[in-house]
Write a structure and sequence with these properties.
heterodimer, A: about 375 residues, alpha+beta, three-stranded antiparallel beta sheet, 11 helices, about 45% helix, B: about 260 residues, Arc Repressor Mutant, subunit A, 6 strands, about 60% helix, Vacuolar protein-sorting-associated protein 36 (chain A)
Chain lengths: ~375, ~260
Amino acid sequence: MDRFSWTSGLLELGETLVVQQRGVRLYDGEEKVKFDSGVLLLSTHRLLWRDQKNHEYCIAVPLSQVVFIEEQAAGIGKSAKIVVHLHPASSNKEPGPFQSSKYSYIKLSFKEHGQIEFYRRLSEEMTQRRWESMPTGQTIQVNKDPQAGRIRAVGIVGIERKLEEKRKETDKNISEAFEDLSKLMEKAKEMVELSKSIANKIKEKQGDITEDETIRFKSYLLSMGIANPVTRETYGSGTQYHMQLAKQLAGILQTPLEERGGIMSLTEVYCLVNRARGLELLSPEDLVNACKMLESLKLPLRLRIFDSGVMVIELQSHNEEEMVASALETVSEKGSLTADEFAKLVGMSVLLAKERLLLAEKMGHLCRDDSVEGLRFYPNLFLTQS
Amino acid sequence: MHRRGVGAGAIAKKKLAEAKYKERGTVLAEDQLAQMSKQLDMFKTNLEEFASKHKQEIRKNPEFRVQFQDMCATIGVDPLASGKGFWSEMLGVGDFYYELGVQIIEVCLALKHRNGGLITLEELHQQVLKGRGKFAQDVSQDDLLRAIKKLKVLGNGFGIIPVGGTYLVQSVPAELNMDHTVVLQLAEKKGYVTVSEIRSSLKWEMERAKQVLEHLLKEGMAWLDTQAAGEPQYWLPALFTELYSQEITPEEAKEAIP
């Protein structure tokens, strides 16, 4: 670590930023040093490290000091590292945080990853040795005091240049990733074409394809995220995955449903199930497609869709129409109720409370009073008192 | 007694021929399916390689996510359709968006009593970011929009309404037709709208304007200020967030999904 010098962190003329990575800790040989959380920057000329908490605190070592580098894989509880072997410090080196060191190498520990990219770039720079062909002309006169570190006019130019470099760098990263992405998409497109061709064959043969093959085909479509070209539905029902999922849901939802009066909206179910899973979450479509299979699989839950489009899961034992009778009682007791009031009284979500009142109205038990003050339901006296 | 002879033989032959034909037909589909299966395996490997290099990029870079999504859409692939899809499993895009979906639902539910189920994309973005905490992965507004599009299928009335330069997110199954949308867009500039403004900008009859405003009032998406100077003003809580504290109260949080 005695090869490092204090620096302002500004790039010099002719020096460009190659890559940077946050969350890097430094080691002097095998020993941790107090530089435990910083941004590691690689330029064409130097390796810099800047403290994340205190940006004035910045050290650098010229790349010309690097003998060779090697990777050290991550282990349990240990981050991946890059080991940088260095020449002895030159006699005219600028002052730095350490006067001496018993090691001739340092380690860069990547606590927030990024070591793969950084190693690649560092290797490139070591090969290209651009610092030899791009002399950093007028080295800017900077205060040796690490605490002060900046001259304003130069500071702004330096920052602007850094931003420009960062932008170019990001662009470069993106264009590489983008290239890879384009190639990947070409292959994905082939899969889409193939699936269309198979789907056409299926249509032509009109049922000479076995059930088994249909199931296989559907599962291939599922993996790729391709809508079923034959039926235009996305996977619809009938993949093994959704069948299994339906059975799982029946198990998971039994108790929550009982706790909530036998009925839950699909959005509630989505949140409940995904919060419980934590990882490998269900997509909304996965959930809907699994729920569509509940009834046919004779599971103790069912999917119900109200006129408004609201979708709920009910226990088979739940009878919404019976609940309507008790809702009527509640409304009668209070004279009239809005969905909000009813929800609070009964302890339901407003969404489902409203659906129940609407159903009661549909069945003729309640009448509505729709005004700007809100939608209020009254017992249908026309029916009872005619 | 059966006659074993030409007749039976001919039938048997015919059956055999038919069976062979069928077999052949099935073999064709079988071939193609086998080919697809092989290509799928290859594709999976390619995707794994891509993921090992660029999974971080997708996670960290919202612009790259947009490019990725657009390219998928162009070729006819929906990477978010299923958590069981390759894209989801290997790139982790699924979990990212599905979890975001949960967070969006919770924020919308917590604030519904204030704004009737309408919220600007900006406010939704702010609240979601806050809920995610400082150490979570950043999300962009584009990410929110994509997550919301997926939530539509749950039947809860999730929708996106373009207003001004941005969007309003609807999270309740209230019917909002073109008339309602247009009035919302008109109200976007000041956070409120009056009957006269509607009549002069949109050239509507009094009845039509009143109907739309009353519908918004009933849905709890608009509030009536009868004490305003001049004529009554219809305010949209979804649009005047600066006047509100940005916090979701503990009571509101409890209202959200348990």
